[in-house]
Amino acid sequence: MTTTDELLTRGVAEVIIESELRQRLASGAPLRLKQGFDPTKPDMHIGHAVGLRKLRKFQELGHQVVLIVGDWTAQIGDPSGRDETRTRLTAEEVRANAETYMEQFFRVIDRTRTEVRWQSEWFGKFGLEQALDLAGRFTLAQMLAHDTFRKRYEAGTALTILELMYPMLQGYDSVAMQADVEFGGTDQKFNILAGRELMAQLGMVPQQVLLLPLIPGTDGRKMSKTFLNTVDMRMPPNEMFGRVMSMADDVLPLYFEVLSDMPVEEVAEMRQSLVAGSINPRDLKMRLAHEVVAQFHTPADGDAAESAFVRQFVQRELPEDIPEHALSAPTPLLDLMVATKLAPSKAEARRLIDGGGVRIAGERVHGYDALLQPGAGVVVQVGRRKFVRVV
Hints:
Blueprint: H1 4-9, E1 14-16, H2 18-26, E2 32-37, H3 46-59, E3 64-69, H4 73-76, H5 91-105, E4 114-118, H6 120-123, H7 128-135, H8 140-143, H9 147-155, H10 161-177, E5 181-185, H11 189-201, E6 208-212, H12 237-245, H13 252-259, H14 264-276, H15 281-296, H16 299-314, E7 324-325, E8 331-332, H17 333-339, H18 346-354, E9 358-360, E10 363-364, E11 371-372, E12 379-382, E13 386-390
Parallel strand pairs: 2-3, 2-5, 3-4, 5-6, 7-13
Antiparallel strand pairs: 1-6, 8-11, 9-10, 9-12, 12-13
Family: Belongs to the class-I aminoacyl-tRNA synthetase family.
Enzyme class: ligase
Organism: Candidatus Viridilinea halotolerans
């Protein structure tokens, strides 16, 4: 059983207000725990799972999880951390994305103890009077305390009134749901505190706040669909395993802390061992990658993905499922690479060849004039993960 101390410290960046939340947990009364997700893209990534895993731990102690599908706020797009206005999505695009979220939520949390609510339930009934009342409860000075808003305002960059409404709308979700605690990444602090402010103004007990760390993506920046550096929950097992293996060594302790049940003492020892250089990071990544695949697929998928990775990258064997491309005439390598999407353009294909990243039948290619023969059966490889067999 998870203790309160571990619940409020493991993989947690900040609790507001911790003493009050501890009192509410100690009372034994079930709490309403809220987290919202804007379906701006159809796939959720394992960064989203950090909050969902924490919610699952609270569920196991008898608390009620309320997931908000932000079908209204997604049309605006969260402005946090953005230096320009997002392109607005249509209601139809948001609805299509949101439908895929349902199955992904329940890869992590308990469906039977989860309430899923759509913002359109309350905002669909909002009239002009209610919208103006909501806007009138916040000042421009309060909104400009938001780091993103202030920087864009001071730089003279476009900042729409609609974007200023985003924190207010997210805050109203907490009112509508009578939330006791709201969960979110550290980038959501301003928006979640807006909910506390609004609840206090309306005479409600302000929600407590539990902020979670943002995990790095494959390029070291925060994992984000905007940066295309994600490990998606629905990603095929072998690709998911490879993405985790491509992470930097220094993210391993955080990943084990927030995406596994490894004891906290073991995580602390791992951190010290990495600093001391007394442990091979690749061994830890293999363990982590298996854990992630098993969690979002099955343990058998984790075993198979690990075996495939070892064959391909440790033992240098070719993968078993290489796509095939049929030729009817001798074809220049550059044309083949573009046709099979091994490269987006001939210019990029030349760059890959110059960098030594292209092989034919295992031999590195040094020029641009290679011809591929029909039925040759040779494998063209780009980098470590892209293959095509010529047939």
